[in-house]
Prior knowledge:
Layout: H1 3-11, E1 14-23, E2 27-28, E3 36-43, E4 46-50, E5 53-58, E6 62-66, E7 72-76, E8 82-90, H2 95-99, E9 104-107, H3 115-125, H4 132-153, H5 161-164, H6 168-179, H7 187-193, H8 198-209, H9 213-230, H10 235-241, H11 247-258, H12 262-269
Antiparallel strand pairs: 1-8, 2-7, 3-6, 3-8, 4-5, 4-7, 6-9
Amino acid sequence: MDTLSTLISHAEPKANLFFSGNLCGSSSSTDHPSGGILHLVRTGEMLLFEDTGLTYKINEPTLIIYPKGKGHRLQPKTLEGCDVVCANLSFKDSPLYRALPESIVLPLRVLDSLPNTISMLFVEAFTSRFAQAAIISTLLDLLLLLVIRYLVENKICQEGMLSALSDLKLAKAIEIIHKQIDYPWTVEELAARVGMSRARFAALFTSIIGQPPLSYVTESRLLLAKKLLLQGQPIKSVSLEVGYSGSAAFSRAFQRQFDVTPRAWHLKQI
Length: 270
């Protein structure tokens, strides 16, 4: 069960409020901060347009999330407008971030494990009180974590790593990989650790997660390396921490994965 916590720690999901109030006119994603976006519709009826046109008719309190950002437009259906809370989202590039669906649209009534958090968030967002900004920020972060857990627990994602967490053996394999990311894993050893044959494990892992086990291991190592580089750790120590014998081997693997050397990539980020 703690596998998701490990994945979340690598992704570092963060939500920051940029609007709360009554939306009485059209609002486009191009008008807001880049990156992921979260909308909570509290009251009113709304049309949600994406690049292909009208996608949803929203007639009840609803959560809308575009984890990786996506062109969209909100249009209230009546002159009274809609009460909404909007936040921009940020994630570190990580297995969890890459596994998130392109869009999440859920009526609040189905989020039966989240009503207290959502209720508190609406109270804070539509009143003026001491420490309001800090409390809203904390509640938004909590809401984002709870939504990610909801996706896993309710098997909303039918493929990819979030779907794999619902399979006990695949979840155990993912946990083992991330707990010992620097270990020289083989498919045979991972399969043995979760009590499966090599062929069955490799086939199941690839079909659900969408890539072979060792490809996932390599990608996870190098995505973690990006995070460590951003924290200011030197290339040599990062290479050892994520399981490479030295800077040269690490740099070759990094360039194969991202088409850029770790040093050049880091310089672009600062």
